[in-house]
Amino acid sequence: MEQPSSNRGFKELNCWKEGRNLRMQISELVKTFPSEEKYLLSNQMTRASRSVTANKAEGYGRYTYTDTRRFFIQARGSATELIDHLSVALDEKYINDEFYTSVEKQCETVLKLINGYMAYLDKTKKEQQKTT
After folding, report:
1. Dmax of the chain from CA atoms?
2. Which of 45, 44, 52 is nearest to 76 (CA)?
3. Which of 44, 71, 87, 111 is 20 to 30 A away from residue 55, measured at CA?
4. CA 29, CA 18: separation in Å to the nearest integer?
């Protein structure tokens, strides 16, 4: 699988950039949660949001179709997990409906971008198989 030649690598991917924005938003959000959530919901949300970007970075650095795709699937799972954690925050009244909807949409944008990148990987692999 061919990777872009730039030294910036994964940082150029829109799906990573949007995931980073999501991660930063979650980082600020969990600071507002009650202290008893520090090792519970706050920790889970922080880990899931960090996993979204970390898995993309690691997968991108693997330089193989199979590994890259597998890590992007993990990132997609973490973004979906984050939506569930947001619903817990909503149910516990740590966030309101408007905030929930806003961040859920951001998660969905990240998911669409991940799916788009995975489709690009699939297409690239098929094109390479045709030429070999």
Report:
1. 58
2. 52
3. 87
4. 17
Asked if residue 7 has pLDDT above 60, the reply is no
Contact assessment for residue 78 and residue 70, using Cβ atoms and an 8 Å cutoff: no
Distance of alpha carbon 82 from alpha carbon 103, whole angstroms: 10
CB 56 within 8 A of CB 71: yes
* pLDDT band (50, 70, 90) for residue 8: low
Topology, domain 11-127: de novo design (two linked rop proteins) (1.20.1440)
Cα 7 to Cα 27: distance, rounded to the nearest angstrom: 27
Query: Both ends of the chain: CA-CA distance in Å?
Result: 13
Closest residue by Cα to residue 56 from 93, 23, 33: 23
Residue type, 131: T
Q: Which amino acid is at 68?
A: T
